[in-house]
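Checklist before submission:
- one chain only
- standard amino acids only
- sequence pasted in full

Submission:
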Amino acid sequence: MVEKIRKEWFSNVRGDILAGIVVALALIPEAIAFSIIAGVDPMVGLYASFCIAVIIAFVGGRPGMISGATGAMALLMVPLVKEHGLDYLLVATVLTGVIQILFGIFKVAKVMKFIPRAVMIGFVNALAILIFMAQIPHFIGISNMTYIFVAITLAIVYVLPRFIKAVPAPLIAIIALTAFALYTNFDLRTVGDLGGITKTLPEFLIPNVPFTFETLAIVFPFSLSLAIVGLLESILTASIVDDMTGTDSNKNKESRGQGIANIITGFFGGMAGCAMIGQSVINVKSGGRGRLSSLTAGLFLIFLIIVLGDLVVQIPMSVLVGIMIMVAIGTFDWSSFSYIRKAPKSDTAVMLVTVIIVVATHDLSKGVFAGVILSAIFFVAKISKIKVDKRQENENMIFEVEGQLFFASVEDFLGSFDFTVENKDISIDFSNAHIWDDSAVGAVDKAVIKYRGNNNTVTIKGLDSSSKKIVDKLAVYNNSNAKLTSH
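Returned file contents:
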């Protein structure tokens, strides 16, 4: 236990602290922007990012991953805030946390194994595109100096690490270019242009709503959607950070941790949040690996708000845009172009559909669900091919079935038989096949009953144990006339 604490908290102190500072600076404009999307005061998003980052540092399942207010969650909140107001959003945030804790207890995170690699690649690429698209309003068509600052930021971020590794390049870019902008008084958009910052700590509060079933009926659909989207984004982000760091993480613990964080956040005036892939990538690329990086990000964020709020609002947006463009470039899986050429067409289609739907709807869950469903359809189509070979031995007709017999293959299975034959001994051999469901048993029933109707004797043989079990349980044909054997 002591060794685990030392590894997760104190094995990379300097790297975690410096990375956390960079993350905190980049959190501010995003938290404000997501608050505006949701239709609430900017401080609601900032308080959420502070609370969630600090709490997840202690209870999350993935060290080095950053959580806070996110755009995917903010989009889901819009109708609730518009129709019922902030207090109902805070209740929904608390209930979101309760649902996520239940997800963690019941190990819902294991559904990750059903998300194919093509969907994961599509998810990552779509997120990179969305991160880039979110920066466009902050630097396109504003001023020539904005373009120059973005370009200088990118140059610092990519070139400086070759010479200076002790301090993260994004932190140097933020400090140096902010000081330069203040000194030269260039006309640049700043963080303050997105919204004001109130220099106060969050306070504990109980949402001012009637605690009735009517309130529950209003917030529950939103809470369930927020819980699912938040868990999905958190688990996928954790998997990406796992790959980046070459380590593993506890996804069910992460679900419980996200739930705890959202419950506490709701009572401190913050909106529901989840893992942030952009900030997590910034953290990892800036040298953050342990829980200390998330704690530092949260604590430094509130320090910036309370102590340096007047200075923070003067940070040029163009600098932060440059950093987020770096994140988008680093997040995008550039091997996807060769993947499109080499992968099966079905996998390529799944990846592209995932990307298109996520980018079109700005909803990660819709893209991932569509990708998983499309993958399932392609998989079913691929394994539904069934082959029935017929051979004659004297008066005996033997049908050897090869493949998977289930709802999608029963039509081809039945179409392989000639039901006009009479007075034969017929064997249907399933040694190289498997019977999966009620539709398959129904098809076997139909074949047996049709042959029996023409005075044939039917023997079903070669069933493996699980196939025999489902046939014994569901078949309706009379086993005294249709022999049933297994191998």
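Reviewer check: The chain has a mean pLDDT of 86.
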